[in-house]
Design a protein that fits this description.
18% helix
Length: 166
């Protein structure tokens, strides 16, 4: 029997968010070069202490930046966030263009960019583990925020889909 994990997982709905980080860049507008990517691998690990995990592909430039800074922000996207998700799912060059145009604010604890959506958090690197073709990073949650309730954006059947609440 052939294993086809990717096809099976297309039937499992996951939330969609944006993870942002930065690296020091002397001479930049705030001394930092920001980057952000779209993710659906965010998982709560522990509530006491508050920990979350992300799985990022080995060799990604974003992962290198996240490991260098040790800080990141997570913005959970609402159903109307599909365009933000699409724009931050591309190459580093296209993400850089998108970041110059998308509204975002630096988080109060990490300086990582936070985007509009129903919730956000800021994290500091606590640990990391090689897991197959990805690196799982565990972050200590430093700050959280919730905005007005909104229907979430989900990833299902290989597509971004607005989830409609009750």
């Amino acid at each position: 029997m052939e294993l086809d994990l990717r096809t099976v997982m297309r039937h499992f709905a996951t939330g969609v968010g944006v993870v942002s980080t930065w690296t020091e860049t002397p001479g930049g507008p705030d001394g930092r070069r920001h980057d952000a990517i779209t993710v659906n691998s965010l998982v709560p690990v522990s509530f006491d202490p508050p920990l979350v995990s992300l799985s990022l592909r080995h060799g990604s430039a974003f992962l290198a930046d996240l490991l260098a800074s040790g800080r990141w922000g997570v913005s959970i996207l609402a159903a109307d966030g599909a365009e933000t998700a699409r724009r931050l799912a591309g190459s580093r060059e296209s993400r850089t263009e998108a970041l110059a145009e998308l509204p975002a604010v630096p988080g109060p604890r990490t300086g990582a960019l936070l985007f509009d959506g129903p919730g956000w958090m800021e994290c500091a690197l606590a640990d990391s583990f090689t897991v197959g073709d990805h690196l799982m990073v565990i972050g200590t949650v430093l700050a959280t925020g919730v905005r007005a309730p909104q229907d979430p954006l989900v990833f299902l059947h290989g597509a971004l889909t607005p989830a409609i609440g009750p």
